[in-house]
Design brief:
The protein is an alpha/beta fold. The protein is built from twelve helices and nine strands. It has a five-stranded mixed β-sheet with strand order 3-2-1-4-5. A two-stranded antiparallel sheet has the order 6-9.
């Protein structure tokens, strides 16, 4: 029977430090190789037995996952935010590689999901659109701060519009400040133009996937939100139940409890102790959370089935912010269900029950 080996990789730009353990945790080999595809494959193919490989999520993770998956039994791309055990004791590349292999052997790593090649193009287009949106928002904030810092009041979006721009610039009396504002406007114009191009490319690419046409039938999910959903989630089948999806998008509540059981007359009983709620976990996909929060906000004010669901929660005495959160969870659950089943949205099936 083939021996089992656990391979931990500490990946860097120029080199990869590798530690190989056997099934009992004994260190079999340590090596430092070049971060090149041919070198990595040569090293892996030189190892005999059943190989399990791990490395941390990073800029090289997608490339390494695709490179190694056909050549080993399993590749685990682990979440560095969850690897608190790596921070214990001394740290260097060799120690980190060995710790990764040991944690993989013990089954203590939190894996980051990686799909295949098919959606990589859409994912990169989504990343480009999100980055350009953030950059444009940052420039707009700097413009507002420039006017606000000189006591110049503004309302709405007129301060950004080209037809009102000259009037706003004339209010800046200092030549240096005026030149600074002009450069910020130039940056904004360029970023807005690039953002529109990125938006068109993203929507066009998303239409190649069947999930896009299904999710577009859900009210308040427009073409951009659906394109980002498909790019970021890739497949709904990676989530077994809706609560896993809620946790991934930041809509699940974290709870804590201690001393949960006690002995009464020699019998084990659960203590009457309430769960302590700690709010939502910070470890989630922020873009997806923004998509569902914005969809819930729109659904709560626009006529339609989601508005009726939202108003039913208010009638039950729920606070508006909690009603919107419940609606966001409901939209997320509907999205997951339709995506998995491959069916279109039917408003008749939306029941006013708790999400």
């Amino acid at each position: 029977m083939d021996s089992v080996k656990y391979v931990g990789m500490d990946v860097h730009q120029a080199t990869i430090v590798i530690a190989v353990l056997d099934g009992s945790g004994k260190l079999l080999m340590e090596s430092i190789i070049e971060t090149q595809a041919a070198t990595i494959l040569q090293f892996i193919q030189g190892l005999k037995g059943t190989l399990y490989v791990t490395f941390e999520e990073g800029i090289y993770s997608a490339w390494l996952y695709d490179l190694l998956s056909p050549n080993v039994a399993q590749v685990v791309v682990c979440d560095p935010r969850e690897n608190a055990l790596l921070k214990v004791g001394n740290q260097n590349d060799r120690i980190d590689a060995r710790k990764l292999a040991d944690l993989l052997r013990a089954g203590l790593l939190t894996a980051v999901w990686h799909g295949g090649h098919s959606l990589r193009g859409l994912k990169e287009l989504a990343r480009s659109y999100v980055v350009l949106t953030r950059d444009a928002t940052r420039v707009m904030s700097r413009l507002k701060a420039l006017y606000r810092g000189r006591g110049i009041r503004y309302v709405g979006r007129q301060v950004y519009l080209l037809r009102h721009r000259q009037g706003w610039l004339e209010q800046l009396r200092e030549p240096g400040v005026c030149r600074c504002a002009e450069r910020l406007y130039q940056q904004l114009d360029l970023l807005q133009s690039l953002r529109q191009e990125a938006r068109r490319d993203l929507v066009k690419e998303s239409r190649k996937y069947r999930a896009t046409s299904l999710l577009r039938t859900i009210p308040c999910l427009g073409p951009i939100r659906v394109a980002l959903l498909v790019a970021l989630v890739q497949t709904a089948h990676r989530f077994r139940i809706k609560r896993q999806f809620w946790a991934y998008i930041g809509l699940a509540l974290e709870t804590r409890i201690s001393g949960e059981y006690r002995l009464v007359a020699g019998q084990l009983q659960r203590a009457d102790k309430a769960l302590a709620k700690r709010g939502v976990s910070p470890n989630h996909n922020h873009e997806l959370k923004n998509i569902f929060k914005a969809s819930a906000t729109g659904g709560s004010v626009r006529p339609g089935p989601f508005r009726a669901f939202y108003e039913s929660k208010l009638t039950q005495g729920m606070r508006p912010e909690m009603a919107r959160l419940t609606l966001a969870r409901k939209i997320a659950a509907i999205t997951l269900t339709l995506w998995k089943k491959g069916v279109r949205f039917d408003p008749e099936e939306l029941q006013p029950q708790a999400a």
